[in-house]
Amino acid sequence: MEISDAQLQAWLQAALFPMARIGGLLISAPVVGDRSAPARVRLMLSLALTLIVVPLMPELPPLPAFTADWWMRIAQELMLGIMIGFVLKLVFEGVVLAGELIGNSMGLGFARMADPLRGTDVPVVGQFLHLMAALLFVTMGGHLQLIELLVGSFRSVPDASQLLVATQFETLANLGGRVMSGAVMLALPMVASLLLVNLAFGVMSRSAPTLNGMSVGFPLALAVGLILLRVDLPHLRMVFTDQLQQVWRLLELLVNR
């Protein structure tokens, strides 16, 4: 049995192009793309998904291997995968932003911890809300829906260059604004409540100047903030689910156009 160079190039193209898109998604996607996820796990998952996707893809015109067009196509597939994962990542970043706003209102702005998932330091409340959002994402089957969306994208858009246009990046920028507004909506009830607590303590401090603000005000704001955080957790689920549904609809319109 003889295998020609054209056949080898076609097999290489059929495997590497989908793997580039899948690898880009696994780099930027939430949960599985976090820095705490081992690189070997992501590599094995990428190989497994590639083996599933390759038989489902339509046949594409071959490109000469290792040419400028060939490398450009791999870069486009990688960028498309990163863009899909980044859109989902924005929702989680909005949750972290809401946690930072809440933590600052509680007086925990100085209490920061190293986040192994993002490679930087975040407020304690932001880290807590990020973990809650990750658990909600997995519980709602978000990881399975993401894989289904990825596989569907190869059927509807086998060539990533069809999607990498200026209008798609404008849509992505607009989505970022909506996600950040959702973060403000998530934090606003607690921030407003803690503002009232601080105002009430300010009135008490004016009426009783001997009252030590640090020894009384900080524990009071922290205790009230923890109670409000417990009450506000169902609101977190509603806002996070609503933001996630908007992102899913956008991604479906993006890859199934």
Write the layout of secondary structure elements.
Blueprint lengths: L4 H24 L10 H15 L14 H39 L5 E4 L4 E4 H16 L2 H15 L9 H42 L5 H43 L2
Antiparallel strand pairs: 1-2
Helix pairs in contact: 1-2, 1-3, 3-4, 3-6, 3-7, 6-7
| Sequence stretches where pLDDT stays below 50 over 5 or more residues | none
Helical coverage, percent range: over 70%
How far from one another are the termini?
A: 42 Å
Shape assignment: elongated
Note the main sheet: 2 strands, antiparallel
Please give the domain count.
1
Give the class from helix and strand content and strand pairing.
mainly alpha
Total helical segments: 7
Backbone CA Rg: 24 Å
- The secondary-structure element order is HHHEEHHHH
Strand order of the largest sheet: 1-2
Write a structural description.
This protein has helices at 5-28, 39-53, 68-106, 124-139, 142-156, 166-207, 213-255, and strands at residues 112-115, 120-123. The protein is mainly alpha-helical and 257 residues long. The chain has one domain (5-255). A hairpin with a 4-residue loop joins strand 1 (112-115) and strand 2. The protein is built from seven helices and two strands. The protein has a two-stranded antiparallel ribbon. Helix 1 crosses helix 2 (39-53).
